[in-house]
Amino acid sequence: MHALSAGVAQPASAAPGLPYANPIKSQKGADPWLEYYNGNYYLITTTFTNKLLMRKSPTLAGLATAPSVQVWEDSTSSRGTNFWAPEIHFIDNRWYLYYSGAQVGAPCCDTQRTHVLESAGWSTSVAARYSTSTPAAPPTAPTSSSGRG
Fold first, then answer.
1. What is the pLDDT of residue 76?
2. DSSP code of 146?
3. Which InterPro entries did the record assign (predicted)?
4. Structural domain harbouring 40
5. How many helices, marked H, and strands, marked E, lie in the chain?
C-alpha cells in the first residue's frame, strides 16, 4: 500500500522479518550520541553504570569494532550510578559532556539528575579526559540594578 492513498496519509508499519540489530553497537547502545569532528565519528551511549565510554572511528562502520575508551568514572555517592543519555558539545574551544546520573543506592529513578563535564584543558580531542562533574542548572535571568528583573 502506498503511504498516500487518495491524498490521505496512511500510518507506517514495520516490514515483516527479523528484529532490527544495531550494526554499530549491539550491546549497551541506548541513547546514542554521535558527533563528527575533525575527520572522525565519536559515539557515546548509555552505560547504566558509573562509567562513560566513547568510541572513535573515521567511518561509521568502523565504530562497530572500535575500542571503547573510558572518558569518565564517578563513585561520588550523590551521582555515581545509572549514567544515561550522554551528549558531547564543542563550545568555546572546549568539549562538554552532559549526562544523567543517580545517587548510589537510591531507587530508580528518584535521584536522576543532569550533570556536565568539561574537557581537561583546551582539547581538539573529543575523547579527552573530562573533569569537574557539576549539576547542570538552567541559566538564571539577569536582574537589573533595581532588583526588578
1. 87
2. T
3. Glyco_hydro_43, Glyco_hydro_beta-prop_sf
4. 24-135
5. 0, 10
Q: Which residue has the cell 541513547?
A: 31
Q: Is residue 17 part of a domain?
A: no
Is there a contact between 43 and 54 (Cβ–Cβ < 8 Å)?
A: yes
Per the structure, how many domains does the chain have?
Answer: 1
For the beta carbon of residue 63, count every other beta carbon within 10 angstroms. Answer: 20
Q: For residue 114, with 0-12 CB atoms within 10 Å meaning exposed, 13-18 middle and 19 or more buried, which class applies?
A: middle
Residue 67 maps to which CATH number?
A: 2.115.10.20
- Asked if residue 5 belongs to a domain, the reply is no
Beta bridge partners of 88: 97
68 in any annotated domain: yes
Asked if the bond preceding 109 is cis, omega within 30° of 0, the reply is yes
The x, y and z cell numbers of residue 83, run together, are 549514567
Burial of 49 (0-12, 13-18, 19+ CB in 10 A): middle
pLDDT tens per residue, range 32-47: 899 998 899 999 988 8
- Cβ atoms of 71 and 52 within 8 Å: the answer is yes
Residue 146: is its pLDDT beyond 90? no
Contact at 8 Å (CB) between 82 and 68? Answer: no
